[in-house]
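Dear Dr. H.,

I hope your travels went smoothly. While you were away I took the liberty of generating a structure for the chain from your last submission, since the lab meeting agenda had it listed for discussion. I wanted you to have the full record in hand beforehand rather than looking at slides cold. The sequence, exactly as received, is reproduced here:
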Amino acid sequence: MPEVDYREVQRRFAAYLRDPEHHPPPEGIEERRLAIYRRLFINNIEDLLGRAYPVLRRLHGPERWLRLARDFYREHGCHTPYFPRLAEEFLEYLTQEREPGVDDFPFLAELAHYERAEVEVAQQEDVSDTSADTGVGRNGDLLTGVPVLAGVVRLLAYEYPVHRIGPDFVPRAPGEDPTYLVVFRDRDHHVRFIELNPLSARMLWRIRNDPAPGHEVIAGVAAEFGLELSDGLQSSAEELLRHWTERGLLAGVRPAFQPEASRSR
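The corresponding predicted structure, in token form, is as follows:
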């Protein structure tokens, strides 16, 4: 009796489960059992992805969503051994590998990215330190002090208004202007988002990447957009900073110049 190569059996079985239309099953397994395995594997994948991307699943409907899950299962070689991380692999497949199908939504990859960003903001560990020792306070002067972002913040830009997409709004073409969003976790640990215009998006970018007193942030953005730094513009920008602080997008304000002892701790 010839020795069975179990690795080859496993390889053929895996290929069959991923793509039963183009790969035959291993010999000696009855069709009833093969059908059970097929349903078990694809149903688990489809259900996990659907819970991770609920808006996408509702838009597709059961049949189209199952086809998309099958495409992912067949085409993508996962790099993680952990089942819960398949949602990340699905996003990689949609944004980097999938060739758009004739019935694909044009915003498929962008909406998936946005849905995943919400989950990541909800789950990300906050490693920032906004305690009293850092000098960050909610009642500081927003113009002379340095605005500080909340601990978990994602700045996003899309061609499509992904935050509005749903069964009642399915755009077929990009918006006239890019959609700028910030997704963050507020002080009560709730995930929130705010739609931004180009100026407010740039303000947040500067606050995150080039910390400076509020009046310098406002002046820098005004210069970038070729705007006169009028009293009205500065007042509107200060009000926006105050609104972000109230919403929890800004953790508060820290002094522009801290004592040497405070900085060295």
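Two observations you may find useful: The first strand starts at residue 146 and ends at 149. The two ends are 74 Å apart (CA to CA).

With kind regards,
E. W.
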